[in-house]
Amino acid sequence: MIRKTSRTSGDPGIWHLSFFCLAALLLFCPCLARTFASDDFEVIKRLGVDRDFRTPGFFRPLSDISLYANYMAGGWRPEGYYLFNIFLHGVNSYLLFLFCYRWRWAVDVKDQRIYAWFAAILFLVYPFHSEGIDWILGRGASLCTFFGLAALVTLLGRLRTWQKLSLAGCLYFVGMAAYEPVVLLPVYILIVLFANHAKAKEMRWWGLVSGVVFVLHLAVRYRLAGGFNGDYVRATVDFEPGVIAGNLVKVAVRLFLPPSDHTRLMAGLSLLLLLGLIRIGWAFYRRTRNGPKERTYFFALVVLMALSCIFPTLTAVSTRTSESDRMLYLPSVFFCSGMSFLLVLLVGNASRRFWIFGLALVYMIFFLEKTNLNWLKASGDTSGILEAVARGQRGSKEGKIYIVNLPDERDGAYIFRLGFPEALSSMGLDVSRVVVVNHLKRDQERVTSRPIRPEKEGEGLVIPPFVRLRNGTGTVVLTGGDSSWRAGAADEIFYWDGGRLNRLSFP
After folding, report:
1. Which helix (H) or strand (E) holds 250?
2. Nearest alpha carbon to residue 463 among 479, 441, 446
3. Which residues on adjacent β-strands are paired with residue 427?
4. Distance CA 315, CA 251 (A)
5. Strand partners, 480
6. Alpha helical stretches, state H, 46-184
7. How confident is residue 481, by pLDDT bands cut at 50, 70 and 90?
8. What are the Cα distances from residue 226, in Å, to 46, 55, 182, 216, 495?
9. In the Cβ-directed half-sphere of 185, how many Cα atoms lie within 13 Å?
């Protein structure tokens, strides 16, 4: 029997929210055993210790407020920060479930509910946006997505029109204080309203409300930040047509595939992916020849995903590591919705549908936990480095510690690209007694034999890739690039071998 219902009848309840939050905790529980990473130390010290809420090059006060609240609750204990990220991701998954359930396309309520479940679960386990959960400072992406989804759900709700428009406008204003990609929310909402056959009057009113909110945001942003886009945006966005085209291809590939250093493999998989999408497109065309509603719905999802990919295309995502995957957090909302829609629409057999869904889950969970493992290893590296420096300072009460090859990251999971002095300070160590000779970047580490060992070079040593040591008059001269240092008898020299920080014995 065909069942028809009102748009929001039988809305999901509290147990659905509990399910997604607990599932998120299960998936990301390894985060709770990790320390902070890179910029985390820098920003948390600025906010929590120095009480400095000025953000040069940024305007993301909501993210800063959430971090400050975490600091007030737990100080330098990272568990609370990660719990916030994890539960926020669970809430976002629930909001996507609610959004997909309320934005009706299926006559059969059962199909609509299955579609909503599939979309939300795929989003929950989606592996290529996990930087927004695994990295404390990545929460800006999930915060702005929360407010965007909340606004979309509100516009599809049962409140009176003026109440929906007012609440959605407030959510839009607050969301723009978290992260920039939510700025296009008014366009997303207009597309959803159009596809949902909303009245022209409601769409005009939303255009007016969102326009006023946007202008108000710009005024506040200019007043507090002194400009509309900070140094960070100017440094990361390249408007060259060739660069934009290359970034677009990267984003399209990374929505489906994990990062890899194997260029040929990525090219081959991308070709297979393209052929598969063409085949799915043909099946969709044949299935919806007499179904304009399904076509309108799917094309709306495609346009939403394309618009949400503007920011990652401008700033670029990596095809080699998980770095910058947080930029795919918002696009993955519409990507997972689209994949779920096609699965429910094109696969009528229930058993086959669940088999395909199960295979997709296995694929996603595998790469999600692989990325989680990278972050866990990077956290171990961070802790090991700090503990080695602490031991070195305890062993020498006057001398300095020189660190060669301080690592930046582990396959996109940050270690000490930034924030090293703040990390030392958080442990009560003397920052003035620690000198970083050089940072070891991932590309340098990949072409260097592992483990990295000092090698004889004439009368001195070289620590790959390029730091050299030679005896001076009662000192050891370290040369890295265009800089040099003199380590005295009371000083210690440590070097990173790719897995741990070692004390160097230099004759």
Report:
1. helix 241-254
2. 479
3. none
4. 10
5. 483
6. 61-74, 79-102, 109-125, 131-134, 139-155, 161-175
7. confident
8. 20, 11, 21, 15, 42
9. 34
Coil/strand/helix, residue 406 = strand
- What value, to the nearest 5°, has the Cα angle with vertex 140 and ends 139 and 144? 115
> pLDDT for 241-288, tens place per residue?
888 899 999 999 999 999 998 989 989 999 999 999 999 999 998 888
Cα–Cα dist 404/277, whole Å: 48
Environment class of residue 251 by beta-carbon count within 10 Å: exposed (0-12), middle (13-18) or buried (19+)? buried
The reply to whether the predicted model has a pTM over 0.85 is yes
User: Which amino acid, one-letter code, is at 103?
Assistant: W
Please state, in angstroms and as integers, the Cα–Cα distance from residue 117 to each residue in 120, 121, 343, 361, 363, following that order: 5, 6, 12, 13, 18
List CB contacts of 25: < 8 A, sequence separation 6 or more.
86, 87, 90
Q: With both helix axes pointing from N to C terminus, report the angle between 263-287 and 241-254 in degrees, rounded to the nearest 10.
A: 70
Q: Which of these, 198, 298, 312, 184, lies nearest to 255 by C-alpha position?
A: 312
What distance in Å separates the CA atoms of residue 164 and residue 158, rounded to the nearest whole number?
8
